[in-house]
Amino acid sequence: MKRLTILILLMLLAVVIGAKEWNQYYFKFELLDKEELKNIGRIVSIDNVKGNWVYAYANDDEWKAFQELGYKTRLLPSPASQFSPVMSSSVAQTRLWDSYPTYEIYVSTMNAFATAYPDLCQIVDAGTTIGGRKILLAKISDNVATPEAEPEVLYTGTIHGDETTGFILLLRLIDTLLSGYGSDPRITSLVNNLEIWIGPNTNPDGTYYGGNSTVSGARRYNANGYDLNRNFPNYDGSLNTGAIQTETNLMMNFANNHHFVLAANFHGGAEVVNYPWDYTYTLHPDNNWWINASLVYANSVQANGPSGYFTSVSSNGITNGAAWYVIGGGRQDWMNYSAHCREVTLEISNTKLPAASTLPNYWNYNYNAMLSYLEQANYGIHGVVSDPYGNPLSATISISGHDNAFTTVITDPAKGDFYRFLSPGTYNLTISAAGYPDKVVSNVVVNANTQTPLNITMGELPHYQEISLQPGWNLMSFNINLGSNDFESVFGTGLQQIKNCSQTYSPAMAEHFNTLPALQTAKGYWVNNSSANTLSVQGQLLSPTSHSQALVSGWNLVSYLPDSSMAISTALAGIIDRVQEVRSLNGSWTPSLGGSFSTLEPGKAYWIKVSEPCNLVYP
Question: Among the options 152, 163, 347, 375, which is catalytic?
Answer without folding.
Answer: 347
